[in-house]
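Predicting holo structure, adenosine monophosphate bound.
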Amino acid sequence: MTFRNLGLSTDLLRAVADSGYTEPTPIQQQAIPAVLQGKDVFASAQTGTGKTAGFTLPLLQLLNTTNPNKVHRTPRALILTPTRELADQVNDSVKTYGKYLSLRSAVVYGGVGIKAQIQTLRRGVDILVATPGRLLDHVGQKTVDLSQVEILVLDECDRMLDMGFIRDIRKILAILPSSRQTLMFSATFSKPIQQLANTLLKSPTQIEVAPRNTAAQQVEQVVHPVDRDRKRELLSYMIGFHNWKQVLVFTRTKHGANRLAEQLAKDGLKSTAIHGNKSQAARTRALQDFKQGKVRVLVATDVASRGLDIDQLPHVVNYELPNVPEDYVHRIGRTGRAGNEGRAVSLVCGDEYPFLKDIERLLNQTLAKEVIPGYEPTSKSQPGADQPTKPQRSNQRRSNRAKSQTPSKPTRTQKPIKSGTPARKRRPTASSV
Ligand code: AMP
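Done. Tokens:
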């Protein structure tokens, strides 16, 4: 299967070739022809599957073939995303794939000034990428006209609902033309998502692809049982001991992310936190510093991590397990991307075992558990703590090694298992959409 077989125009094929893609991903193989045929689409796909190109390429082609060449352009395609980062990323993709076309795109989201966005909209836009709240601000100020929207994309729909955007989405839907093409992308199919799909989509083409990380079997996953109050110490030790240069660490709360980044910095590890409370400028800077290697550890919450496109990230650490098992799959999807091997480490303490069980059930596999000598959990209730041993005094030495950030040769080999089995299928029933 090639991109040429999918019916894309020469200009789009050139842009795809420039991006270095040789073969369409499974979601692209299914979504591109369906969108080109004008169908509504309901797709289960996560970040990392190539879903963005899956809807952007055919959308560009449809708009380009019917380009009305109007003097003043109003959005003909609207792409809604849950976060600013994802909005930026999608807009970048629109620009990348549309570089040989004369369509204009823009992105609007909150947390930054509205004036520049108003000016951009005034100059005319064909494709608008937006987060729901700020889009409604523009609607309220009459700085955007959505009456000509032909194609609506709801990207990471489940996350938008999780973040409480459903009312905003409904308000936006109410002002869009009812005769339009609608594409819905969601990692999960909860009841509210299915209900939304029921009300929005007309005879949709349903697409389901396995998350890239489980399908590609490229992510090594391992669980280290450890007491909660020793997690930070163990993390510093592992980063120093293995000389990890770029680590994405997940916490459950914003406060936890801030505190951990501060503590790691005290351990001598350059760290920064990224979460929804930070300004857009601070988040962008943190991400850039991390990508450029100026910051060694990026501590993130699940919401902030959505839409982060960091290819070839070697290490992801779950400092705390998420209570929504699908978030685990999203998190580890940050590693082992673009054909590279990755490693996902989870530090798990006693009260997190129910979460671990849920995750293992979703993955349909048991994750390897490995107690790190010197960090044995002390509570009897914890798996892996059957024969508790006293923490070794050598920990201080290990922390110091982490502090110095000097490379050190691992003296013991760890043998985590590969993620071998595809995640449980979450196929919507025919009657659900
Ligand atoms: P997405 O799931 O849209 O976030 O895409 C994940 C990553 O896959 C991005 O870095 C894309 O640039 C990349 N990508 C998208 N389509 C392809 C393809 N056909 N071949 C290789 N990489 C791709």
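The two ends are 29 Å apart (CA to CA).
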